[in-house]
């Protein structure tokens, strides 16, 4: 649950709806809310000091205090979410861990990410001024649209921990794409300050770039996927598969953010942090694969070969977590990652390495000499790099027993090392359950070792070879399923985006009265949404009324027609009598032509004409279309419901002649609403 800075913020109705239950539970909830309010006041004071001081040592101290406050807030939110046990309560956030419970006991905890928090934002005031100033309309007439946008953002601040919450975040992200295309340009934008808190450290960051808002929402989409994956019941195959899918989508979201976002103002959105998060989520998805394969299945007996398969799967998980350990140890990530995460990852690396040896020992114990186990020689590695020959499976039963004891010894040593690492760092609440998991595995390994122990064993067991990592299912990062333009633009009434945006300049003319002459109105119409005056007859009624070639008709007899199709406008004009028709048009004005090869954003053009990040700029977020990034060799996607017309580059669009559009790349795409008419055959 996202914390609010006012008692009537999002979630207040949810909390009030729970009243009337257990009085002790209400008392605990009230106490937690008081502690949350105290922590929020401490965070506000530390944030003010952080912004006011220029002393680096003071800023480091304040940042450490903010990190401590952020951890406390995450723990309080976790405790608050645990009260009531409602279906809308999600998993814990932040630097803690989430566990799933099964009938056999506690499973290994996972690491979910906390959502980035943000302050309230006033969209209405700058939008009202911009619509009145640039679009020539009454900004107050769009109060309903502004209220809908602000309500959507307010809901986005505290999404539910399920698919509905993901849809809310994706819907707001889609609206940000519409807002970016309509109300923001390289030379002009809304005077808004986007304020977000770092998910890992709690340090505040703010920017005026809309890319920061879009990137933060994308981050929360990925973080919410991690929370959904962490709270799955992995004691069933369905739950394990759901967790794998959630972690794959989270990794894909952070990869998209890393490839698309530059000049990150907060540590959690830096390229190094996002890359580390990708590796962490890939390791957790691989762990879910192991858990799914180790579930008891009546159709597949757990014979020796199956145990060797599990040994390699556990070794694969250990290898993935060792890579995460290396990434977390590199600067600057090691300064941002919570200590509990680092401890958990180190413990998991040792724990799954020990499990690999345990399953290899079980495979050796369960196999008979007559049966043989040729797969063993392909599973293990030589114990030392100097030993060139591959280990050979002993053919004598006694030798196999000794080799199994060697593997069990490695399993016991590994689990003891995991417990030692766990005890070195004070971890938070639910991560402590990992101690129970490792202790359980250690007891199982010791029991198996005792079964193989004999009184006449006077020699130490030989060193067991390491298990080669191998998996039957390698989880790959999956791009998030964003709406990709399927949503409806909230500011649909402003007009079609190719024309009615701040990137274009025009003059609103009219209403203009045009009488019907002997040969009609004296102009030719073409195109859809909006309909274009393609030609004006010299000496005709349209020319006398002041209409010009290239004007767009936006109103017919007082009826807005920005989204009318060509046939609808023609039918309306044919229906008027001799008195004529009253038209309102917009006349495009010339704009400065951008230099060749330079994007309006100030950087060189990349694939598909999207600008590369320019130096010394605020945050940039370059996400092609409304969805996932794609290599330059693949065709550029277009939102569903749009058609494409292709025009040659090296020349400006001819209709209207002076329309201020940027120079196209070698092949450019012009998007027109398919449901509002055909593509722009306007020339």
Overall description:
- The chain is α+β, with helices and mostly antiparallel strands.
- It is built from 16 helices and 14 strands.
- The strands form 5 sheets. Strands 6, 7, 8, 9, 10 and 11 form a 6-stranded antiparallel beta sheet that branches. Strands 1-2 form a two-stranded antiparallel sheet.
- The two termini are 54 Å apart.
Summed up:
The chain is built from 16 helices and 14 strands. With 683 residues, the protein is an alpha+beta fold.
Query: Helices and strands: which structural class?
Result: alpha+beta
Q: Secondary-structure element sequence?
A: HHHEEHHHEEHHEHHHHHHEEEHEEHEEEE
Shape: elongated
Work out the helix count.
16
**Fraction of helical residues:** 40-55%
Q: Roughly how many Å apart are the termini?
A: 54 Å
Q: How many distinct beta strands?
A: 14
Low-confidence stretches: 1-20, 84-95, 99-105, 592-617, 623-683
List keywords for this structure.
single chain, 683 residues, alpha+beta, 6-stranded antiparallel sheet, two-stranded antiparallel ribbon, 16 helices, 14 strands, disordered C terminus
Topology:
Blueprint: H1 12-16, H2 23-52, H3 56-82, E1 101-102, E2 105-106, H4 124-134, H5 143-156, H6 163-183, E3 194-197, E4 204-207, H7 210-230, H8 237-260, E5 261-262, H9 271-293, H10 304-328, H11 339-366, H12 376-379, H13 397-424, H14 433-452, E6 506-514, E7 523-526, E8 531-536, H15 541-545, E9 552-556, E10 559-560, H16 566-574, E11 581-588, E12 620-621, E13 642-648, E14 667-673
Antiparallel strand pairs: 1-2, 3-4, 5-12, 6-11, 7-8, 8-9, 9-10, 9-11, 13-14
Helix pairs in contact: 2-3, 5-6, 6-7, 7-8, 8-9, 9-10, 10-11, 11-13, 11-14, 13-14
């Amino acid at each position: 649950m996202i914390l609010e800075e006012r008692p009537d913020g999002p979630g207040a109705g949810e909390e009030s709806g729970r009243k009337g239950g257990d009085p002790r539970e209400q008392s605990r909830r009230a106490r937690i809310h008081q502690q949350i309010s105290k922590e929020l006041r401490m965070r506000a004071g530390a944030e003010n000091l952080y912004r006011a001081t220029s002393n680096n040592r003071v800023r480091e101290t304040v940042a450490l205090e903010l990190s401590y406050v952020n951890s406390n807030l995450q723990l309080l939110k976790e405790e608050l979410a645990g009260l009531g046990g409602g279906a809308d309560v999600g998993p814990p956030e932040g630097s803690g861990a989430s566990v799933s419970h099964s009938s056999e006991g506690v499973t290994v905890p996972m690491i979910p990410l906390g959502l980035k928090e943000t302050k309230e934002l006033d969209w209405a005031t700058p939008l009202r001024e911009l619509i009145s100033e640039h679009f020539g309309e009454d900004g107050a007439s769009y109060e309903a649209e502004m209220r809908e946008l602000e309500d959507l953002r307010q809901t986005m601040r505290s999404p539910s921990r399920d698919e509905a919450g993901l849809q809310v975040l994706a819907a707001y992200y889609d609206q940000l794409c519409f807002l970016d295309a309509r109300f923001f340009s390289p030379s002009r934008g809304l005077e808004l300050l986007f304020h977000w808190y770092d998910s890992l450290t709690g340090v505040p960051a703010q920017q005026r770039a809309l890319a920061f808002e879009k990137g933060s929402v994308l981050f929360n989409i990925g973080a919410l996927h991690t929370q959904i994956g962490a709270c799955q019941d992995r004691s069933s195959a369905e739950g394990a598969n759901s967790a794998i899918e959630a972690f794959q989508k989270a990794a894909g979201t952070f990869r998209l953010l890393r490839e698309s976002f530059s000049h990150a103002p907060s540590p959690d959105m830096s390229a190094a942090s996002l890359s580390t998060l990708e590796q962490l989520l890939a390791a957790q998805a691989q762990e879910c694969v192991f858990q799914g394969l180790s579930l008891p299945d009546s159709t597949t007996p757990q014979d020796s070969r199956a145990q060797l398969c599990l040994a390699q799967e556990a070794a694969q998980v250990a290898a993935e977590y060792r890579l995460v350990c290396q990434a977390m140890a590199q600067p600057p990530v090691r300064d941002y990652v919570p200590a509990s995460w680092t401890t958990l990852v180190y413990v998991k690396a040792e724990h799954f390495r020990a499990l690999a040896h345990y399953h290899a020992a079980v495979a050796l114990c369960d196999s008979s000499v007559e049966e043989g186990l040729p797969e063993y020689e392909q599973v293990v590695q030589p114990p030392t790099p100097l030993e060139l020959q591959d280990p050979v499976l002993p053919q004598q039963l006694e030798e196999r027993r000794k080799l199994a004891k060697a593997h069990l010894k490695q399993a016991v040593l590994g689990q003891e090392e995991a417990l030692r690492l766990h005890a070195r760092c004070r971890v938070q609440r639910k991560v402590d359950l990992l101690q129970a998991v490792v202790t359980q595995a250690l007891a199982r390994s010791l029991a198996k070792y005792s079964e193989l122990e004999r009184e006449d064993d006077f020699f130490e067991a030989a060193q067991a070879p390491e298990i080669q990592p191998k998996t039957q299912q390698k989880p790959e990062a999956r791009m998030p399923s964003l709406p990709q333009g399927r949503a409806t633009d909230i500011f649909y009434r402003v007009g079609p985006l190719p024309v009615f945006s701040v990137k274009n300049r025009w003059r609103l003319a009219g209403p203009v009265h045009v009488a019907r002459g002997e040969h009609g109105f004296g102009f030719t119409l073409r195109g859809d949404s909006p309909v274009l005056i393609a030609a004006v007859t010299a000496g005709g009624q349209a020319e006398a009324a002041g209409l010009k070639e290239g004007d767009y008709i936006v109103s017919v007899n007082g009826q807005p027609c920005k989204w009318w199709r060509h046939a609808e406008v023609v039918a309306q004009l044919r229906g008027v009598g001799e008195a004529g028709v009253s038209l309102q048009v917009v006349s495009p004005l010339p704009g400065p032509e951008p230099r060749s090869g330079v994007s309006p954003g100030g950087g060189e053009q990349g694939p598909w004409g999207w600008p590369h990040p320019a130096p010394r700029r605020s945050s940039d977020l370059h996400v092609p279309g409304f969805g996932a990034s794609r290599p330059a060799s693949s065709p550029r996607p277009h939102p569903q419901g749009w058609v494409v017309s292709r025009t040659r580059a090296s020349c400006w669009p001819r209709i209207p002649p002076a329309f201020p559009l940027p120079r196209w790349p070698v092949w450019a795409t012009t998007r027109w609403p398919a449901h509002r008419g055909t593509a722009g055959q306007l020339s």
